[in-house]
Amino acid sequence: MPVSERQLAAFAAKHAGQIPFDTSPRHLAGGGDARHVTHGLAAAGWKAVSDPLSAEIVLRSPDLRHHLKFDPQSTTSAWWWLQAEHTDTERGWHAEFGELLPAEFLAGLTDALISPAPASHPEPLTVLRAAGWQVGPDDAAVSPDGMCHAEQLSHRDAPAYWRVETCEPGYGTPMGPRIWHAYFDANTPEHLVTAFVTALADPAPLQRAMYDRTAHYSAVQVPSPLTPQQTVDAHTTRIDSLRSHARAARRQATKPATTPATTSAARPTVRR
């Protein structure tokens, strides 16, 4: 299910009629446009397997191992679920995300999922510390405004998992009511968690329209220097890049293996 010109035109039409506002801190920007996620996966060859007349969207990867579910009618606190099935060599894993999680954070993770895994990557807490988050002795990181918390937790001998939460100010307690959450089980590849927190901790504001719902009244919005067309162009450029990378990966996967010439065949016989 590649992203069609009609779908890109619909994205452009929606954003062309909006006045963009720089919204910060980004963890309070609100959900934004889910197509940041779905268009990226579609460009990489993921296909919709859900009922097209349903509000629920389910996308499945070309290798059938991964699937993403978006359900805006969910009766739980999660609207997004990302799951990987077990294989002979890799464990399965899953992650979930709340309603008001900015779509750009999940897009950072899914872009990393559909790209080759890096040979090395910084640890999530290293990324947050470098971005000015306060990291305590318990390895829990807190955003500069104190409303977003990220930590790796374990219970008894169970493997550690990651949890990120944005909450109301506690007013005498560490945290008040939860605004949105992200949960990564213990088998989630760490480079995907790193990709998520990299998008989370980026100091740049997110673009939201004048009347878009933010996650909290304390979010600061100022007129953006970006034009609506620049927002659309950035989205299109990203989708084109993901599509090109996916095509290159498929070509590499189907490229016939070459057998190098043996040393003895390449070297002439030496007479003594």
UniProtKB/TrEMBL annotation:
<feature type="compositionally biased region" description="Low complexity">
    <location>
        <begin position="254"/>
        <end position="272"/>
    </location>
</feature>
<feature type="compositionally biased region" description="Basic residues">
    <location>
        <begin position="244"/>
        <end position="253"/>
    </location>
</feature>
<feature type="domain" description="DUF317">
    <location>
        <begin position="61"/>
        <end position="119"/>
    </location>
</feature>
<dbReference type="Pfam" id="PF03771">
    <property type="entry name" value="SPDY"/>
</dbReference>
<dbReference type="InterPro" id="IPR005523">
    <property type="entry name" value="DUF317_SPDY"/>
</dbReference>
<feature type="domain" description="DUF317">
    <location>
        <begin position="143"/>
        <end position="206"/>
    </location>
</feature>
<protein>
    <submittedName>
        <fullName>DUF317 domain-containing protein</fullName>
    </submittedName>
</protein>
<feature type="region of interest" description="Disordered">
    <location>
        <begin position="244"/>
        <end position="272"/>
    </location>
</feature>
